[in-house]
Design a protein that fits this description.
With about 450 residues, this protein is α+β, with helices and mostly antiparallel strands. The protein has four domains: about 1-105, no CATH class; about 110-200, PAS domain (Beta-Lactamase, 2-Layer Sandwich), CATH 3.30.450; about 205-280, Signal transduction histidine kinase, dimerisation/phosphotransfer (DHp) domain (Helix Hairpins, Orthogonal Bundle); about 285-449, Histidine kinase-like ATPase, C-terminal domain (Heat Shock Protein 90, 2-Layer Sandwich), CATH 3.30.565.10. The protein is about 50% helix and about 15% strand. Strands 2-1-5-4-3 form a five-stranded antiparallel β-sheet, with helices on both faces. Strand 1 (about 115) and strand 2 (about 120-125) form a beta hairpin. Helix 10 (about 325-345) runs antiparallel to helix 13. The longest helix has about 35 residues, at about 25-60. The radius of gyration is 41 Å and the shape is elongated. About 20% of the residues are buried.
Amino acid sequence: MASLSTPPVGVFLVLALSGDIEAGPALLGATAIVVLTAFLLNPYGADLAQVTRYARDLSNGVETPPPALRTGLTADLLAALGQLRRTWKAHNADLTTLVRFHESLIESLPGPLFLLNRQRRIVRANLAASAIFGRQLQGRDLAAMIRTPALMDATARVLKGGAGADVEVSLRGPTDLDFRAMLEPLRESGPAGTVAVLTLHDITALKRMEQMRADFVANASHELRTPLSALLGFIETLRGPARDDAEARERFLAIMFDQASRMSRLVADLLNLSRIELNEHTRPDGLTALPPVLKRIADGLEIQAGQRSMTIELAMPPDLPMVKGKADELEQIFQNLMDNALKYGRQGGVVRVEARLTDDLPAGLAGRARTAVAVAVRDEGDGIEKEHLPRLTERFFRVDAARSRQLGGTGLGLAIVKHLVNRHRGLLTIDSTIGVGSVFTVYLPADGA
């Protein structure tokens, strides 16, 4: 306002100095001009001050209502500022939507994904990666989680500007996983120095199919050789020396039936185990109440128990929580354990099945669940030597092979139990005391654990 009143005031000053008007009127005129200019421009100055504060609030992200203005010029300025604000908000909304879409896209990828900086540290990881490696991944060195030398070498080359790489990675743990790791450099550096992307594609099922094919041939040929040799021997005898011996024929046919039945059970267990191992890395959905499952198994084994004058006792609280898993697979677990307890327990003894909720978890389960339902199957058998306990769940391992075959065992029951428990992300523990008996305890994560 002072600058606008300066030219008229200067005119009065020149006239007063030249003597054309007296100093008093000149001073009075100059004062009047200054006052009038200030009066006329004051609304504009006030409006501009409000527009300035409004613009400053917007730049700081403060949402305030537009000020009420008194002059048309500043109102036009405010309208232009409002239009700029609306355009900026629409553009910002588009950017936010795009960012959220990209975030959702990354998080929804079925395989683990990592964004890496030049120091090999993780800038970002998606949900699939967190599910396998844990939640606190940002800032960690990739080598702290995946120690495969081939992947580390490929990562070093890519981070130095080399071409992408494709290697196989194996993760060993309660459930072994195999991945195809694909590492690619980014054309331009991203936020937080991101220079490369690593994706893991699960090939566990393919690897297991290859291994199972090899194991099946080796194990089946070994286990089937004995009964097949027996069958061929008896057939040859029946076709030769015992052709007309009715008594020998009946005895041999009974033995042949037992051997053929054994082979049938063996093939059934092998196929069952192969199917379980194929799906072991995938956790089953749904919830199951264990008391009805255990009661149904005990009722089904009542006749078998009676043949050896044995009883099955169930003990479980009425408020036992449900567990995560499939009822038919859980039934298979406890069917095998209770059947073994009846086979190897003392005649006339008791098989005790106890279920309880516990937060005192074994070391192998403590980091994966807070509480679990523990189901212990206790027999009163002869017990098992301590050195044999770690191998009980191996395929075809038997402490007493002759007794196992005599009782109709295939050597696969506990292997099936182990892999089914692993599939349910649980744990199997075995304790045994010579002359007292054995306890097989299955820990399954409780609902909400």
